[in-house]
Amino acid sequence: MPATVQFVPTAFSLIAVFCWGTSDFLGGYASKRSDSFLVTLLSHVGGFVLMITLVLASHAVLPSRTSQLWAVAAGALGGIGLALFYRALASGRMGLAAPVAAVLGAAIPTTFGIVVEGFPGAMPVAGFVLAGLGIWLISRPDSRTGSEGLGLAFLAGLGFAGFFLCINQTGVASAVWSAAISRFASLVLVGFIVLVRGGVPRVRRMDAILGIFAGFLDSTGTLVFIRADQTGRLDAAVVLTSLYPAVTVLLARFLLKEHFTRWKAVGIAAALLAVPLIALR
Question: Torsion angle, CA of 53/57/62/67, rounded to 10 degrees?
């Protein structure tokens, strides 16, 4: 595929980076003060409403039954992954939990993409390595960073990997329908978890608003990721979009004043350098 063609999937991927990174920051921040699963539920409600509105507005064609089932599976895995992820962000440091989940969530589908779609070329692989190094450096804990939330982040990463693999199987089906169906599946799953947990989950009004807005961004990120996957390669789309922790970390640094080491700065620089390499064919 010519290098010029890669501008489209790369642009979609970078939009997803901004959407997912900002969404995770807002959802994690809201979960620090309110019930994380209820924040996640509100996020899914907001995301589903936005996607179904886009479906109706665009008169998109309903996907086949097989594509619908893959979207449901993607939503279920992504939904539980996101709930665990928000909990990890709330119980530990955003600058550690976000990259750990991203590394694991990217490694599995990227390997799958290379096996199925073939070797992408020397330059993209160099970009993959550089991006992986960047994410690792961003996640590198310093002396003031504890390991709280690390186990939850690991499980969340498995859920994210499952989402990438399943949504890829929807093929060329309507991206907005796939996003809406997957969001509905995750909404039902998270809603069930909230109901069976017992107790009275509480959420502050501002945290509810942040959760809903996080859902808008998260579902938009899902939509543009699907388009990146449809117009390019799975491995490139996954690696590029998995750079979203850089956005989360930067927001945590500048808005919450979380500790920011020079290694994180080097990691973000490596991630930025990886983008044009991955886009090149």
Answer: -50
167-192 pLDDT, tens digit per residue, is 999 999 999 999 999 999 999 988 88
DSSP-derived 3-state class of residue 167: helix
Contact assessment for residue 236 and residue 120, using Cβ atoms and an 8 Å cutoff: yes
pTM of the complete model: 0.86
Q: Which residues contact 131 (CB under 8 A, 6 or more apart)?
A: 239, 240, 242, 243, 270, 271, 274, 278
Instruction: Of 19, 29, 18, give the one whose Cα is nearest residue 208.
Output: 29
d(CA 215, CA 217): 5
Is the torsion defined by CA of 182, 102, 20, 277 positive or negative?
negative
Domain ranges within the chain, ordered by starting residue:
3-279
Long-range contacts of 116-119 (CB under 8 A, 24+ apart): 116/234, 117/233, 117/234, 117/235
Tokens standing for 165?
């693999």
